[in-house]
Amino acid sequence: MDSDSFQRSREPDIVHRAEMSDTPVQAHSVFSGLSLAAGYAHSPFQSGIAALRDPGRLRESAMKHLWFSTAIVSVLAILLIIVFLIIDAYPIFAAVGVYDFIAGRVWDPAGAAPAYGILPLIAGTLLVTFGAMVFAIPLGIGSAVFLAELAPPQVRAVAKPAIELLAGIPSVVYGFFGLIVLTNWLRITFDIASGETWLAASLLLGIMALPTIVSVSDDAIRAVPRSYREGSFAVGATHWQTIRSVVLPAAISGITAAIILGMGRAIGETMAVIMVAGNAAIIPDPITNALSPVRTLTGTLGIEMGEAAVGSAHYHALFGVAVVLLAITLAVNMCARMILQRIQERHEGAAGAGYGPIRAGIDLIRLYTPIFLLIVPSGLLAVAADLRTAALALAVVLGFFLLRERVSPKISQKIAFGLITSSALIVLLILGIILFDIISNGLPALSWEFLTEPPRNLGREGGIGPAILGTLYLIGGAILVALPIGIGAAIYLNEYTTEGRVTRTIRAGADLLNGTPSIVFGLFGFAFLVLFLNLGVSLLAGQITLGLMILPTIIRTTEEALKAIPDSLREGSLALGATRWQTISRVILPSAVPGILTGTILSIGRAAGETAPILFTAVVFSRRLLPTSVFEPVMALPYHLFILATNVPGAERNQYGTALVLLMLVVGVYLTAILIRNRYQKTVTW
Amino acid sequence: MENNAILKTENLNLYYGGNHALVDITVGIRKNRVTALIGPSGCGKSTLLRCFNRLNDLIENVQVDGTILFNGRPITGNDMDVVDLRKRIGMVFQKPNPFPTSIYENVAYGPRVHGIRDQQRLNAIVERSLKDAALWGEVKDRLHASAMSLSGGQQQRLCIARTLAVEPEIILMDEPCSALDPIATARIENLIHALKKKYTVVIVTHNMQQAARVSDCTGFMYLGRLIEFGETGLIFESPRAELTNNYITGRFG
């Protein structure tokens, strides 16, 4: 009896976890009780066993608390970020007034009469994001439809990772490509003084948002039950009719979430935008003038944070900008979260609930189709050829659109599939151009000296050895910070609790952290780690900042890996009398290693490529010696490339060399992750 | 009997990768009759059914050899217009699979994709199809409610109505009652009886009593082969093959 109640109190969670009915639980406990009793009867070392059991119990409870404490780190982090930003932004809100700060039309914090109106910056962010979406939504959805519906398996096996690779290219490399190639091309095409424009920023951000839109939409389309497709085929609908009238409406929530996530990425991007947007804090005049330079909220932070004196009005104004930026991105991400949650609920409780959203979905499709058919091809043509060709194409497409009722389903299927396939080809072509440009120009710069020597003559000569090592130090430290915390949090969320308020809060924290723009991490790192904790601009501050940034990725991928492990494995171990922690450490974690590894590698890729979070926390442009302690600043590849590309004329060879090394590092890391994923997808089927 | 066959296969073989799923099937399906295909799980009866409307095309690694004739014309070739074929040979699936839209939209979907846009014609088609599927009385007041709000049996009749709306010549039914309760099953069976006046029905079923109740002809399949095919009465009362006898007397399956 004693041992029975002891068992109950010790492992109450198992009961919840496995959702066993009452009878098996009792059987389980009775069984343990019997074995214990048998132990007592047999053993002369009974007191020894009891003593051994006690530390076990202690360890179990200590483990649980340990994992709980790691789980709340992400919640604490997002709270700290918000608190610190608001504290540092408060003086400017108090001095200027919230309304005048947001609605003021002049941003001139360094002028003789400083002005702190961020309306031009908000306008810049919104315009650039809008432009990026006009370009990325049709291409992204088209590519997703191609991947999910049209591509033969062999093509898909290559094209899908290729498009995902686009996501792995560091933003500073995109910015570099945009600065050297894209703006130059725009300058010549439109015959303007500088190609650094709203259009350039939108094109570049569109490209950067594409992989997110494609991946998430592709998942949504593939999640549409096959029975819907079969039902449509069985009444003699063509493939395109099936896609248009059944598949896309059923996938619309996921596609919408994909678009919002892509928007979030575009709004939060810093480095690439700084390098191509021109950064004049003006509202374009007229507002549709896509060839006007613009400045975004993120760009302002990236440019001015290094110049503002700590504690000055300018400094506080920048934190005000960060608060507004954070509010916008969090709102966008919350939208995506809510939509995704609605989908989940619908999938779970399918009956009755499905009708409303689908109806709305069909209406949305009707909205998207003209965008897809009209704006994009003509816009692309206007850029690529000239206005006359564009007008002609527009007329043809418009004619088709008006006549489509009379066009036979087979013809319209041909046209639609042509457009879909070409959108996927365009995306792959963009990837090809970027990679070709960087590789072909970067290869000549590579040499042993380049990889090992410190830079000379402001980086025009010499190598990037300290930058490579600095980046490796930063990555290593970030992983050391994030891996234990992230895995612990995932273990707590998945193994120790049932869904409830606590897990919802923790997940919300991780999601919010995930949606926080990287430049905001940089600002927070500067205010909290560099100044408040007095770490100075140092390797350690950079490592912690990057670690916080990649934490959500590690939590999420680890959780997915843990979720993929069937409960029967847990029950099998628990039924042998193993404790919770024994089960986790010996059965669950080893099985989850591939998933955790994939997540870790993806985080490494992200940490290696990020510039904004280390901009004010860890890096210097040039330093001959390696840091001797974590309290000294370091060089880093992305920052080195950023400065070389924007501030050092005549360093083209080493710019491309640095870009190539950074690209190889990150792409190599991503390829490893993809290979691991594919390998284990093949070998492990639960 | 072969002469008025609307659907005929000759030495049909089908492979899923290396798996030989259908072996030398030669069968004739007669017009305006109900033909049942019975046999244990995995015997190939659903696969055979899906050959008739080329739905196996959706599955990778499927290879088909042999001839299938629909109204005397081969349908296995690459030049076959599968969209038109599926319009003329409709299908009802094992699990009801209405689209997650309204009842009306589900039935109107087929005519719409085939170019009918006139609202009154659509209304008439929807009403006729729902009546033919014996569902009209239950849903006529809520045509614009979600199809997902119907019961399983109603959903299946809605799927039948959706099939009828495009006026196919043949209706393929892949275990249409396996997800339904006995009362819903009885209604579908009555419906099948009524349908054969206008349509040819091929039904795959697990349930031998059902085959005996609804069909005119029955084929027994085992391990990808058509063991026996003939009048339902004969198959059930005096089967020629011992395998058939063992199966229908419940010795295996």
Automatic annotation (TrEMBL), chain B:
**GO MF terms on file?**
ATP binding; ATP hydrolysis activity; phosphate transmembrane transporter activity
* Sequence ranges assigned to domain ABC transporter in this UniProt record: 7-248
Q: Which InterPro entries does the UniProt entry name for this protein? A: AAA+_ATPase, ABC_transporter-like_ATP-bd, ABC_transporter-like_CS, P-loop_NTPase, PstB-like
Q: Name one Pfam family in it.
A: ABC_tran
Q: Which residues cross the membrane?
A: none
What keywords appear on the UniProt entry?
ATP-binding, Nucleotide-binding, Transport
Please give the biological process terms from Gene Ontology that the record holds.
phosphate ion transmembrane transport
List, alphabetically, the GO terms of the cellular component aspect: membrane
Fetch the SUPFAM superfamilies from UniProt.
P-loop containing nucleoside triphosphate hydrolases (SSF52540)
Which PANTHER family does the protein's record reference? ABC TRANSPORTER I FAMILY MEMBER 17
Protein name per the record: Phosphate transport atp-binding protein pstb
